[in-house]
Structures are given as structure tokens and as C-alpha cells.
Design a protein that fits this description.
This protein has 16 helices and 18 strands. It has about 525 residues and is of the alpha/beta class.
Length: about 525
């Protein structure tokens, strides 16, 4: 296992600060934000200084029902080679659903969504992971994600799910302690129990980040201070195993460099606290007077510490487990409480998607209904096609139908699948739309400038029933066209600027009046 040390997520907004920060052993970069043949100069300078750079993917969707896209795997592998990375990382999540597997339009989430912790989903994930491992030039580690929603009918805890994944594939783990805290608040899951069930020896490194609680829901924003509960989970993890690396994630509302340095110091101190706890656990207590030896009968041929044990052994004292090398990591600086941290919005490469699933009632495979070319898909894992297909292909279809149904409810306004908390689905849907608006504002900063305060409400209204159809840049163009078709914005000067912006990037003129009327009529028919 590569020893990484203490690191920070590299982002263009803080590139200069990261270069100057003391004690940064390594950095992590969102893989989709860089090109293998044209690395950012600040990253190149860090590499020349001997700083390890790890690419962190967000678009593979290994938890999805489809097999991994070979082109995405190849691109991730090329970036790992270009960076000289010792490993690459991704997420246990799905980011798209639908398509040929479910005979429904492909939908794009624009963010990471949780997979159901079921045997079907685990079987699919394991095969996808093995495909990825075979294609990548370096080892792969997978991250647990934060979730606002829980799947009904789950069969495994998070710890059990991850432990079996490691056992079956040998994949490494990237444990995000902030995500464990998020799932504790939002889903009632015990972080300590999850850690106790994990194969901690498989941990490649750890993420630390901040968030905020609103109305009883924890939002893993990476734009708020790292909270004490998150640090306590980090300390608990460090008391169980010495993590090879720990990384601070920050993705928005970036603080001054001195605050970043203070956060890193706080993380070092927390890890040292956890390791000190581990050392105290290994200290053998003072011996008490030995009790009279009692014979302990053990089957002949049993082995203890590598040697054969006779059939009867006298045990005078209890056995105390110790670690072979009780080294304590100490912090070079005092622990400093500070603010800041943000959650990565999945920016970068456009993720292909198609038209939204139209509104409709949930139904079984045998009872699907086509509405204006879109298919309303089943809602439960149990509604499976009984056709004689290989077991894993059948599992993929069941998982695919369930994920497509959920994603359609989140991004296309179709009814909530059975068994889900509709209020939480609403929270998740709004969160996805907000993240999408934030990314569009970054890839097309002219739009907020042209629309002013009206940008965000207008985009959220647009996104409510219009999923992405071709990535974030395409999304920005579609949003602008949507406004122009509705003769918005009302200010003629702003509308003229928006028209010019759209023309410059789309390569054509906005639709004329006849086309607008035809589209409006078609939209009315579809809604009926």
C-alpha cells in the first residue's frame, strides 16, 4: 500500500495556494477536469517537486447497471499514466440510468447517487469493478458516497456491502469519513459500526470534508467547516488502522491559504490522536497473581501462531493482543480548529445523456407505456423480466429498471417509486438541480452575468422536468434556447445579449416564429 501522507484536493481556484502550503505530501485532482496530454502547469510543477498526484474520477458510474464504458476507462488510465499516479480512485455510485438495457431513454444525474445494497447490485458492481481493474494500468480504490435517500428493501449494511466487495474483487477502499457522518444524520447509520465491519487493511486513503445541516438533513457541501463529529470519526478510524493517506477536500467558498493550512494541521492532530488511542489499547496491563492453571482442551492438530498445539494446554494468563509496530504518528503543529471544506461538484467532461422520461405512473416490465417516445419504467427491484437470460444479465436488468425509475423521478418529474420517502426524494431532486445550476454557471459564466439574479430561479424552473441531454455545456445552450423560445428575458438588451451568446456557441440562428409555434404545439400534445 502506497504511503501518501497528508494531502489536499487540487482545484484551479486554489492552485497557487496549494503550491505554497507547507506539509502537503500529495494532491488529488478530479480526473474529468484535466487532459492527459495537456496537464495544468501548477500540477506539473508539483510533480516536478516530487508531490504525488492521484486522479479521482466522478463519471464512470461503476454502480450502474451497464458495464463500464471502455472509452471512459481508457481516458482515466491515460491520466493516471500522465500523472505518474500510484493508483486511481472512483465512487461506488451510479450517475446515469436507462438506455437499451431498460428500453428507456438514457438519463443523466449530473451527480453521484447511491446504489441499493442488495445482492443484485453487489453482483453487478463486482463485475464492473473487475472490468475496470483489468482495463486500468494502476490499482483502483473506490469511495463510499454520501446519500440523502435510502433504498427500500436493502439486504446489507454499508460495512457488509463494502467488505464483501473487497473480498470478491480485491479492490481498495477510499473511505470518506464525512460521508459516513452524512449517512449517520440522513439515514441513521452508525459510523462506528460501519468501521467495525470494514476490512480496514484495504483502505488506500481517507477523505475529510465539511457540510451543513438544514431541517434535519445533512448536506455534504464541501463548502463549510469540517465538523467535530467528522473529526471524531477520523480519530476512530485512525485508532483502528494507520491510514496510508488522509486528504482534505474543498471545492467552493475557498478560504485564505492560512485557513487551509490550519485545516491540514487539524487533520494531522486528529490522526495522531487516533493513533495514540490505538497505542494505549496495545499496552499490556500489569500482571495480576496467576490463577491456578486450568487445562484447556483443544482438538488435536489445532494450530496456534503457526505451530501445532497439543490436545491439552494449561492457560495461566489471558492472552493480550498487541500490534507488531506500535508507532505513534505525532503532529508537527498544535491542533487548530478552523473552518472550511466543500464537496466536489462533478464538473469537467460532459456526460452523455438523452431526452427525459415523460411523466407517467410506475408499472411492471410487462405493463410499460410509451409516452411521446419516453418509457415509464418499473419502480422496484422485484419487477424483473422472467425471460431466460444469464443470472448476471437478469440482475443487471433488475438493477437498471430500479435505477432508471428512481432517476426519472429525481430529474424528470415522474412519480416517486414505491417504498421511497417522497419528502427526501424532493430534497435530493432539488439538490441535484442546484448542483447542476452551479456547474452550468461555471462552464458558462456569461449566463449569470446576462440574467443577473434571475439566472438561478430560471434555471431551476427549467431543470425541474428537463434532464441533461449532452453534458453541462450542452445544458447551458439548451437553457438559453429555452429562454429565447419563451421570449425571455423580458429586458430587450439582455435578450439581445443572450441571443448573441447562443448564436456564437451553437453555430446557428435561434428558431424562428414558425418553429417556435410548432415546438410549443408539440409540447402541449406531449403533456396531454
Amino acid at each position: 500500500m502506497t504511503e501518501l501522507g497528508i494531502g489536499i484536493g487540487w482545484r484551479p481556484e486554489i492552485a497557487e495556494a496549494v503550491e505554497a502550503l507547507p506539509g502537503v505530501d500529495w494532491v488529488e485532482v478530479v480526473a474529468e477536469n484535466i487532459c492527459a496530454d495537456h496537464l495544468p502547469d501548477p500540477l506539473t510543477r508539483l510533480r516536478e517537486r516530487g508531490v504525488t498526484v492521484v486522479p479521482h474520477g466522478v463519471s464512470l458510474g461503476l454502480g450502474g447497471a451497464d458495464r463500464p464504458d471502455p472509452a471512459r476507462l481508457a481516458a482515466l488510465g491515460e491520466k493516471a499514466v500522465a500523472l505518474g499516479a500510484p493508483l486511481v480512485t472512483e465512487h461506488i455510485a451510479f450517475v446515469r440510468a436507462g438506455g437499451p438495457l431498460t428500453a428507456s431513454p438514457l438519463l443523466e444525474a449530473g451527480h453521484l447517487l447511491p446504489v441499493p445494497r442488495t445482492r443484485d447490485a453487489l453482483d453487478v458492481l463486482c463485475e464492473n469493478v473487475r472490468i475496470a481493474q483489468d482495463a486500468l494500468p494502476v490499482p483502483l480504490a473506490l469511495e463510499n458516497i454520501a446519500a440523502l435517500i435510502a433504498w427500500p428493501g436493502e439486504e446489507l449494511t454499508e460495512g457488509q456491502f463494502l467488505a464483501e466487495l473487497v473480498e470478491r474483487t480485491g479492490v481498495r477502499l477510499l473511505i470518506d469519513v464525512a460521508n459516513l457522518h452524512t449517512n449517520h444524520v440522513n439515514r441513521g447509520e452508525d459510523p462506528a459500526k460501519a468501521l467495525s465491519e470494514l476490512p480496514v487493511e484495504a483502505i488506500a486513503y481517507v477523505h475529510v470534508a465539511g457540510g451543513v445541516e438544514r431541517d434535519g438533513v445533512w448536506h455534504d457541501t464541501h463548502a463549510h467547516p469540517v465538523s467535530r463529529p467528522v473529526l471524531d470519526i477520523l480519530a476512530d478510524l485512525a485508532s483502528r488502522v494507520a491510514p496510508p493517506g488522509v486528504l482534505l477536500e474543498r471545492d467552493d467558498d475557498f478560504p485564505p491559504a492560512e485557513e487551509l493550512a490550519a485545516e491540514l494541521t487539524m487533520i494531522r492532530g486528529t490522526v495522531a490522536r487516533g493513533r495514540a488511542t490505538a497505542l494505549r489499547r496495545t499496552v499490556t496491563p500489569a500482571r495480576r497473581p496467576a490463577a491456578p492453571a486450568q487445562p484447556l482442551l483443544i482438538g488435536a492438530g489445532a494450530r496456534v501462531s503457526g505451530g501445532a498445539m497439543p490436545s491439552a494446554v494449561a492457560v495461566a494468563d489471558p492472552v493480550v493482543e498487541t500490534v507488531a509496530d506500535p508507532v505513534v504518528e505525532t503532529a508537527a503543529d498544535p491542533v487548530v480548529e478552523t473552518a472550511a471544506a466543500t464537496k466536489a461538484v462533478a464538473t469537467g467532461e460532459a456526460i452523455a445523456a438523452t431526452e427525459a422520461v415523460a411523466a407517467g405512473e410506475a408499472m411492471t416490465v410487462a405493463d410499460t407505456v410509451t409516452v411521446a417516445g419516453a418509457v415509464a419504467v418499473p419502480c422496484t427491484l422485484a419487477d424483473a423480466d422472467a425471460s431466460p437470460t444469464p443470472p448476471l444479465d437478469a440482475a443487471r436488468q433488475r438493477v437498471g429498471l430500479a435505477q432508471a425509475s428512481l432517476l426519472s423521478a429525481l430529474v424528470a418529474g415522474t412519480p416517486a417509486p414505491e417504498g421511497f420517502d417522497s419528502r427526501r426524494l424532493g430534497v435530493q431532486s432539488r439538490a441535484l438541480a442546484a448542483k447542476r445550476a452551479g456547474v452550468v454557471a461555471k462552464v458558462a459564466p456569461e449566463l449569470p452575468e446576462i440574467l443577473g439574479k434571475g439566472f438561478r430561479p430560471a434555471f431551476l424552473s427549467y431543470a425541474r422536468t428537463r434532464p441533461m441531454t449532452g453534458g453541462y455545456r450542452r445544458d447551458a445552450l439548451d437553457f438559453a434556447e429555452h429562454l429565447l423560445l419563451a421570449n425571455r428575458p423580458e429586458d430587450p438588451a439582455a435578450r439581445r445579449r443572450l441571443t448573441e451568446w447562443w448564436q456564437d456557441r451553437s453555430g446557428s440562428r435561434p428558431p424562428g416564429r414558425a418553429v417556435r409555434l410548432a415546438r410549443a404545439a408539440r409540447h402541449v400534445l406531449v403533456r396531454r
